[in-house]
TrEMBL record:
NCBIfam families: nifV_homocitr. The keyword Manganese does not apply. Keywords: Acyltransferase, Nitrogen fixation, Transferase. The gene is leuA. Its EC number is 2.3.3.14. Gene3D superfamilies: 1.10.238.260, Aldolase class I. GO terms for molecular function: homocitrate synthase activity. The lineage of its organism: Bacteria, Pseudomonadati, Verrucomicrobiota, Methylacidimicrobium. It holds the Pfam family HMGL-like. This is Homocitrate synthase. PANTHER family: HOMOCITRATE SYNTHASE (PTHR42880), ISOPROPYLMALATE_HOMOCITRATE_CITRAMALATE SYNTHASE FAMILY PROTEIN (PTHR42880:SF1).
Amino acid sequence: MSSKAEAWEQGGGSDPYLSCVTPVGEVLKATNGEKMSGNEQGLSHGRSHACGPLDGMLPAGNKIMAHPPKVRMAPRLVDTTLRDGEQAPGVAFSREEKLRLVQALIAAGVPEIEAGIPVMGKTERQTLRAMAATADPCCRLISWGRMHPADLAAIQALPIRFANLSVPVSDLQIEKKLQRSRGWVLETVRRFVREAIDLGLEVAVGGEDSSRADLDFVLRVAETAQAAGASRYRFADTLGILDPFSTFRSIRKLRRAVDLDLEIHAHDDLGMATANSLAAYRAGATHISVTVNGLGERAGNAPLEEVVAALRYGSQIDCGVPSASLPPLSALVAQISGRPIPQAKSIVGSTVFTHESGIHVDGLLKDPRNYQAFDPKELGRSHELVLGKHSGPRAIQWGYQRLGIDLSLSEAEALRQPIADFVTEWKRSPQRSELLQLLSAATTRTACTPSVGEGPREMQARRPSGPRPASCPASIEPVQAGAPAGSCAAPLARGAFSHRSPN
């Protein structure tokens, strides 16, 4: 068993519900108030710039306990939006856009960025040099290339001193794409890792198509990479075929066999890239490859925003990327990639904190925690309530009160069907002016048709002033789409609310 695997096992790593950990004695310093350096904080991964603070880990008196508690170390994120993200069909970043993005990633605290492919040409290399000239020392830039002389020469000519050298490891790609053998792959790994190290580079070996490869052969590749001097093995689920269970088994076997850092590179073809990345981390992976918005080939990669949020809110693990930085990053990548963010995209979609269902709205108005996985304020967002087919009378009351109109429960109940009919026809929630028209129409219908209980006098006392419709309208035309903010088309509710709101 490798030394890293021993540390992992001692820290509870054999339990599939615990993360890759390092014993406290390996990362804490028995000093009296002396702070650890970045290099010392990063010992768990064998690198500097640890991802996440160690505050609160020192016991009283700053002395190491005889039996230290298990400490969960955060994974290091490797953002590959500039490399794998740009390989999405139709996506091409300009030099200026790449520089904007790399600075945004650095400002957000992303510890590693796979910046590009030097062998692509002179323009790419010039951009990579510009990135290196402006990069923060706390962020590591990485060049990507094949195990080919031209790729290595292009990488070596740049000031970026970490290289991810990729080689196929599945029998299918070895035989059908490369028309080579397993023996050739092992010798190629041995040769190019040594050559890269001789050129002053630190090397990660990228095992393309690892998820479809024979796992015993993957172990041989990783062992060969380690013996040649590589510091990391990237386990690539190139076609996104894994599930969390198979991911855990594969990474756990690798973790027990080698002392290399292990990186999971998950694709989302089956919709499990984030789940597979978390499973790999719990099995012993030290690094997680991500892209902003999941941008990437085919169905994309593990989204940065999902991995950060899942670790923070699901496992209470801080990767050092603030939640508030996620929406601006997402918006930037959506802009420069030409790929709009889906409304319901987890974490960053425009409607992920929007509520319509009567049961949910009632619970939120009483206490937001009833239907809140985490506080949207951490993302610079807030809950937003809209009226629709599933709105109950209390939600309708609250909605109209936002317009300065007080309705009784019976009046709100009378508006449920007109609101539901509007949404069914127009496939969206009614906006401010449309809600006023619906109320006016309901008042008019009440005036045209005698009602039981509260009559038109009560409703007319509350309806907005203005000319009374000449007849009972059969339908309500929607407000023109795309009306400017602040117009009659402004959404019903924007901004924070509290449980003290009317219910």
